[in-house]
Specification:
By secondary structure, the chain is α+β, with helices and mostly antiparallel strands. Helix content is 23%, strand content 37%. It has helices spanning 3-23, 36-52, 197-205; strands at residues 72-80, 83-84, 89-90, 94-102, 107-112, 116-127, 133-143, 154-162, 170-176, 181-190. It has an eight-stranded antiparallel barrel with strand order 1-4-5-6-7-8-9-10. Strands 2-3 form a two-stranded antiparallel sheet. Strand 9 (170-176) and strand 10 form a beta hairpin. The two termini are 39 Å apart.
Amino acid sequence: MTRTQISAFLFLSVACWAVLLWWQGIPLTWAMLAPFSGVVGAVSGFLLLFDAWLWRLLIFRGWLLKRPLLHGTWKVALQSDWIDPETGQCIPPIHCYMVIRQTASKLSLDLVTRESHSTTVSAGIEDCRNGTFRVSCTYNNQPRNLYRHRSEVHFGAMLLDVETVTPASLEGEYWTDRKTTGSLDLTERNSKVCMTFSQAEALFSS
């Protein structure tokens, strides 16, 4: 929520509170509104902290906010059904990393391999109402120039199944506009966020 939205919400609450006091015959004074700006600042600060970090605490998750903790860098095994035209065979599983940036209100996923970088176009988390969640996203894949003669820039969609609010692993599948599909197994997470494939490699090898 923006500061303007918070101010509007609190003003509505104060107005309702004032009407109830007036209805009960309690005298009202302007001095009662003196702390209003301070309250707006305090609530705004708390919401900023909650959105960025506090929501991750177990004390809040599950009742105040039903949202799994996925933030960090994940080790991934990706299996594609793409056929290598040179060999006529499916390629072996690709070793790569999923970088998930997450707040209480926002989510983005980046898949980094030795040859390309996939960036989220849109993403969301669905509460499946049985203790599990589903992540869905669309993405844009940008191969490095060195490999674009055999791997074109393309768009795709992905689904990930999340079994708990603190998952140790994830499974999912994807589709692309190149008419290929595949599966993903996210097997290990580090809370740090990486920018490149080499950084992720160093993170998990240290």
